[in-house]
Design a protein that fits this description.
The protein has about 200 residues and is mostly helical. Helix content is about 35%, strand content about 0%. It has one domain. The protein is globular and about 45 Å long. The N and C termini lie far apart (about 40 Å).
């Protein structure tokens, strides 16, 4: 990915305005949030500068290539609108494999571990867990964070969610070994080790 790709996507990014027909009244708002961008002065790889407590195992493109969200994260009108903001021609927004008649259906065979493991966007919206900065949720936030966008308090909140999810879900997975839990953990960019002896 070139520096130009990153800079062009930064110019496109915007929060979802409440006047947009796709805006949902359940979205949380960060009215005083100040957006800054990490300086990509030398290489795009330098953007991937994360605080110690936030250490995802996969970048967003790797996750999509592996198989996450039943390949439906970007499939509805809002998803298509938001994916157009990201760097073009890179697999932030598509799988590396071709599946027929599965788009938008949370198709479990698309997922890396072959299990459905996604809650609906409505579930997250009803619990005030999605913000108008990233109206698709955590993964959209992660894409932009990985590209160098910083919004201090909002980022802290998302990172705290990631840390709590990792602690809780890894413990659950290593207790029960359920493949659906393993797929859900991958949706948060976390690697699990194989439980097979």
């Amino acid at each position: 990915m070139s520096l130009q790709d990153v800079l062009e996507s930064r110019e496109r990014w915007a929060r979802l305005p409440d006047t947009d027909p796709l805006h949902d009244g359940r979205l949380s708002t960060y009215p005083s949030a100040r957006v800054t961008w990490v300086d990509p002065a030398t290489t795009v790889a330098d953007i991937y500068n994360l605080p110690n407590r936030f250490a995802p195992d996969y970048d967003p493109m790797h996750m999509m290539a592996m198989g996450v969200f039943g390949d439906s994260y970007w499939s509805d009108p809002l998803g298509r609108q938001r994916q157009a903001l990201l760097p073009q021609n890179y697999p932030f927004t598509k799988q590396s494999k071709v599946y027929k008649n599965t788009r938008g259906a949370q198709c479990k065979k698309v997922n890396f571990y072959g299990r459905p493991a996604s809650l609906t966007r409505d579930w997250w919206l009803d619990r005030a867990m999605i913000c108008d900065m990233d109206p698709l949720g955590w993964f959209e936030w992660y894409c932009w964070y990985w590209l160098g966008r910083r919004v201090t308090q909002y980022d802290d909140w998302q990172i705290a969610r990631w840390v709590n999810f990792k602690d809780r879900q890894l413990s659950m997975y290593y207790s029960n070994g359920f493949p659906g839990t393993r797929q859900a953990i991958l949706h948060w960019a976390i690697r699990t080790t194989d439980l097979a002896v």
